[in-house]
Amino acid sequence: MSKYGPALVSVALSLGAIVGYFSLLRVPFIRNHPLLYIVAFALAAAIAAVAALRAPRWPSLTALAISLALLILGSYFNFVMAKIPQSLIAARVGQPAPDFTLPDAKGAPVTLASFRGRSPVVVVFYRGYW
Amino acid sequence: MLTELGDEGVQILAISPDSNERSQELAERLRARYRFLADRDLAVTKRYGLLHPRGGEKGQDVPVPATVVLDRDGIVRWLTVADNYQVRPDPADVARVVRAIK
Predict the structure, then answer these.
(1) Range of the domain at B92
(2) Does the structure show a pLDDT above 60 at B6?
(3) pLDDT reported for residue A2
(4) Which CATH number goes with the domain that contains B30?
(5) Number of independent structural domains in chain B
(6) Which of residues 33-52 of B touch A (CB under 8 A)?
(7) Residue B84 included in any domain
(8) Most exposed of A66, B9, B45, B85 (fewest Cβ within 10 Å)?
(9) Is residue A94 within 8 angstroms of chain B, CB to CB?
């Protein structure tokens, strides 16, 4: 157990981070803190690295390779791919929002200004399903 | 956000380049006051300064995810713009803003 222990802990931490992140995506706190999975991968790599330095055998070396690969891939995804360049939104708090008319799912036109005096409106821009 | 804002008496307009028939069916099943609007040529997205050129998975232009809350008079009361597409506003925060308006 002591020979495989740290390697198992490392791999379990990496896999736990992946499974945990994807199964808890609907929880706003988890979704909005993607850094948590990066930290978990880094911790898994540190545990495997310490074990590998003490005894450079296949279990700890494998765990180190897995956690480092995940750390690099995860960091690339979070810090490079998922990053959005800063944009200057043309709406200001305290001012009217730019008006628009767009078709709904049935093709009927919807105008933002038509809700004036009727109800608050939440306008959500999203990337769509790609 | 579909369900948490359901009873707040607020109209939610969700804008993307998609046509969204299926999303609209889902929203209607949940009785959410959601309307999915198709910004096919991204003209409104551009007017709002929210174009992310070649930001899509296939290199296509997509909107920068953003949420804007307007009061009954059409005045912007709160807004947030994403800097990482994994992150979305917490529905509880949006619900709080909407409740404060009413």
Answers:
(1) 12-101
(2) no
(3) 67
(4) 3.40.30.10
(5) 1
(6) 35-39, 44-45, 47-52
(7) yes
(8) B9
(9) yes
- Would you say residue B86 lies in a domain? yes
Determine, for residues B47 and A100 on separate chains, whether the beta-carbon distance falls below 8 Å. yes
Residue in this structure with the two tokens 């925060």, named with its chain if needed: B93
Nearest CA-CA partner of A95 in B42, B48, B28 = B48
Question: What percent of the residues of chain A are helix, what percent strand, and what percent coil, each to the nearest 5?
Answer: 55, 10, 35
Of A98, A102, A120, the CB nearest to B102: A120
Residue in chain B closest to A105 (alpha carbons) equals: B21
Question: B63 or B25: whose pLDDT is higher?
Answer: B63
Q: What is the pLDDT of residues A2-24, one digit of tens each?
A: 678 899 999 999 999 999 998 98
Q: Is residue B53 part of a domain?
A: yes
State pTM to two decimals.
0.82
- Which two three-digit tokens encode residue B95? 């619900």
Give the gap in angstroms from C-alpha A43 to the nearest C-alpha of chain B: 22
Asked if residue B92 belongs to a domain, the reply is yes
Average pLDDT over residues A87-116: 90
